[in-house]
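Worked Example 4.2. Consider the chain below.
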Amino acid sequence: MASSVWTGHGIQIRRGVIVQMYYPEELIEEVRMKNDIVDVISGYVRLKKQGNNYFGLCPFHNEKSPSFSVSGIKQMYYCFGCGAGGNVIGFVRDYENVTFQEALQMLADRAGIRLPEADNSEEARRKEGKRARLLEINKEAAKYFYYMLRSPKGQEGYQYLAKRELSDETMNKFGLGYAEGTRSDLTAYLRSKGYADELIRESGLIGFDEKRGIFDKFWNRVMFPIQDSNHRVIGFGGRVMGDAKPKYLNSPETMIFDKSRNLYGLNFARTSRKGNIILCEGYMDVIAMHQAGFRQAVASLGTAFTEGQANLLRRYADEVLLAYDSDGAGVNAALRAIGILKQAGLRGRVINMRPYKDPDEFMKNLGAEAFEERIEQAENSFFFELRVLEQNYDMSDPESKTAFHKEIAKKLCSFEEEMERENYIEAVAQRYNIGFDNLRRMVGKYAMNTGMAQPVTRPKPTVAQKNTPEENRKRSQRLLLTWITEEPGVYEKIKPYIKAQDFTDELYRTVADRLFADLEQGIFNPAAILSTFEEEDEQRAVAELFNTKLPEINTDQERGKALHDIVCAVKQNSFDYYSARMGTDIEAINQVISGKKALENLAKTHISL
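Applying the procedure from the previous section yields the following structure tokens:
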């Protein structure tokens, strides 16, 4: 355990002394309880109910099979793949990449709760202070680049943007700027503003090597400030003047900049109220679209479209229109994005850019009215996939044509909802002149072969634990704590034999002590117990305690035996632990005496469920 303990992020106790208080535990608990974790996480992750819990793809690591579990009963989440876990406040903090206070404020606003002004702890002040300073530095850098573009030194950059037919109003709206052709001007400017080199380096604006020393990352480039949804500058993209490489350079990831969870232009698009989002590939595409009146356009940040970005879009629209380049690379990127959008529960359609390569070129040549027509004609993403797939087959050859139809049937298996699948089978059969019944039988055949109709099993951890004696001892303790949180009534069955002191790991014992004390008072609130831990690694460990995979047993008799075995294992481990520490330790002696008696009783007892 850490030497510094937080009671619900309210009072910090360090070595037994109250050091700081910012939010009362009761207030934090009110915010947490008024934000149902299933409702909140459903706004970020597509969840499906399986038994008592909900499952989806984990937003904290890349995966193809859902291992991310959300429990409405426990008001907690846990990923069986990467081990991420916590309550609703921890989820918002980690997903949005904000501080605890910011996450609490977001949830308080959602629930209509007003938070009082609060003093921060020293650690919270340090983290928040650094975040604030990094935002300040980026703001100053954006101002510097903005000024340079409009100065005599920035004429090359200004002329480039003017040739791309951007108006001054558009340049100003997006805060476009210029980094001049030397390697130290920005550094000198930021130093003059009082920022230390180390902090400037952490912002990603400068680099260092032994040959050149400190140098500006961005020079001789048109600059695109990247803003978060609250219009704060969190990073930069730069387009080089000339043919140097790389053509586009982006800020590295920092404390305030996560490329996978932000989108260029979203700060404007999220308030467009157009009913859809247009997803582009590049900054210039987004800017050209906004200038033409399509304020719902966004782009990923120099990387491929991610699950995190798809989940972010779900908060603002149900439909995403792909306006990717019409070349081969753009088609492949669109195919990948379609799959990600589908996993996130978003409808996708593809806008035809031909004969032009991208939205920027299209807008310059055909204009906004023609693009509006293309939006209305945008192709259903599934039929786009089939059209691209068809190019690999010779439709005049019966064998090749049959192979194509088989691939269509396989793809139709991806629709899990029966009504949706039936509708697509009917539409595909009509479009490709395939007999409906024949196609339906073919889909059914592949569904059986691929196990589509098989029940979904609860995911298992991707990393197997080592089967050591110590791990076995700890596992039995985790199993018991999970079982109690799955079925709180079990506590009455095991409390004659098990006390909090029987949990030999200090963290486990702390959790058990709080859990048992709550249950004695008729309170069941695992998420509140997790809130008492400040350190993120401890929160993950506590989440695992409440989400260990239980034995899959059907009959009550077998379940009773399994519970009995787990209780015996925990008690035997406790007995061995305190026996080895007896000496003159009165507490250990008492634990051994009571433990021996409990073990004798357990040997004669059957726990009935």
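The two ends are 35 Å apart (CA to CA). The chain has five domains: 4-118, 124-257, 266-385, 392-449, 469-603. Compare this with Example 4.1 before moving on.
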